[in-house]
Specification:
The chain is 38% helix and 14% strand.
Length: 208
């Protein structure tokens, strides 16, 4: 049974991206095949994602970068779709971006389902304060990933088990808005330089 739909962003999520690893190693996950990932068309991507949701209702959506924005757009426009939750990782700012500006303004309405936004403090595609502002607008839980770049292969993210932990919380039911963020920071040491350095070394293979 499929319980997770992986939603790539601009240029897709080929190996060694963590989304590729997740889809390849989790028999309950599928990657949404989005047309022409190098030249995305918002309306086409929305129909393709909606079709996958209709085929696999009550899944958690796991979007990265532009995929996270696609999810927010779709759930704002089609709130009746049966989605168990959404994990939005390193959302990408569309305003002023040459390749994705045509997606239009990012919606800032409450999403009527459990949502986690996992954001980095040095993401070149969106500042942390902007990600935090969108998280509040969407009624989402914000998870601070520390200094994690764009949370992609260039930032050293291949296998990313923490993402599955976040997904599992969405599958488990409603989020606790007051305590969950601090629990995740405590569990993984987010916000502490030593823990960030250790995770970065592990991601890039410098340490086990």
């Amino acid at each position: 049974m499929i319980n997770t739909l992986i939603v790539p962003g601009l240029d897709g999520s080929a190996a060694p991206h963590w989304q590729h690893w997740w889809a390849a190693s989790d028999p309950h996950a599928l990657t949404v095949d989005l047309s022409d990932p190098h030249r995305p068309v918002a309306a086409v991507w929305e129909v393709e994602l909606a079709s996958m949701i209709l085929a696999h209702p009550d899944c958690v959506l796991v979007g990265h970068s532009l995929g996270a924005i696609l999810i927010a757009r779709l759930l704002t426009q089609w709130p009746h779709l049966r989605v168990a939750g959404a994990l939005l990782v390193a959302p990408a700012e569309t305003a002023g971006a040459d390749r994705i500006g045509h997606f239009g303004p990012i919606p800032e309405e409450v999403l009527d389902l459990p949502v986690i936004v996992a954001a980095s403090r040095n993401d070149p595609w969106m500042g942390f304060s902007r990600a935090a502002q969108l998280s509040r607008a969407w009624g989402a839980e914000l998870v601070d990933l520390g200094f994690a770049g764009h949370v992609n292969a260039d930032a050293g993210f291949g296998p990313w088990e923490e993402g599955r932990v976040l997904r599992n919380r969405l599958l488990a039911g409603p989020l606790d808005d007051t305590t969950a963020p601090s629990r995740f920071r405590a569990a993984y040491g987010y916000g502490t330089p030593d823990a960030q350095l250790s995770r970065a070394r592990t991601r890039t293979g410098a340490a086990l």
